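Reopening this one. Same input as before:
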Amino acid sequence: MLRRLSRPTFPVRRRLSTHANAAPETWATIAEVSPLSPSTSALELELESSLTFEPGQWVDLYIPAIDQVGGYSITSLPAELPRLSLAVKASAHPPAAWCTRDARAGDRVALRVGGSFVLRDTPAALYVAGGVGINPLYSMLRAHCDRAPPRRAALLYTAQRHDELLFTAQLSRLAQRLPGHTRFRLGATREPSSAAAPPLPGAGRLDGRIGDAALEEALRWLGCEPNEVREGSAVPWMAESVAREPGTASEACAEGVCAYVCGPPRMTDEICATLRRMGVGQVHAERWW
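Same output, byte for byte:
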């Protein structure tokens, strides 16, 4: 699980095989199922008893008719309880297939909270998401922006296609509410930017994968000057990255900025390695499966 180290650590999502592995904490009734994208559904749950969680955590979802247990990030905030929101991407895994194909309002499920990928109290934060990796970051980002006094937040978020970007309308409203404290950049990795709809109000575009240039720009906006590039020295296993001089990053990189990364394993590993080379002292990550 997460430890406070200079290098990122990766909480492991449990995929339990039977309900006997752990006992649920509460039952909930599905209030609504709605599409978030062509492949992802939102589940709105009404809890039947009390539950506590922190932004960034997930739940084990126990479905009475299915032996396997699903693990899905919470996208709502603790202040919104007893309503709790999940986002589930369709897959052949039985719980995900049930959530996106068969679940109906009125169905009952059981829940258990888990995970230590949670929001820290820092003056500024960088959020980097790939695909449904936005799910825990969406809750964390909202909580970060609700703190007083306002804190700076930068978001870099890509999906394979523009229509798979989640929470775009909500992110746009958040950016417009805090224009001096948010910097959001969204894009697709397998479609040109010309295929996208007009830019969201308050948010900019990303072209292709999240690389060094996008990370540098976001960090500088947050007040963090990255380590300097070591001329002529590339990182052998990462074509888009370069080696950097140790110890040249500003103090804000080491102490004042916290980075949160969530996405596919390879993307998460590469982004975290790059942020470490840039001198970011607090990097926290979670891989999705």
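So the earlier flakiness isn't reproducible anymore. For the record, The radius of gyration is 19 Å.
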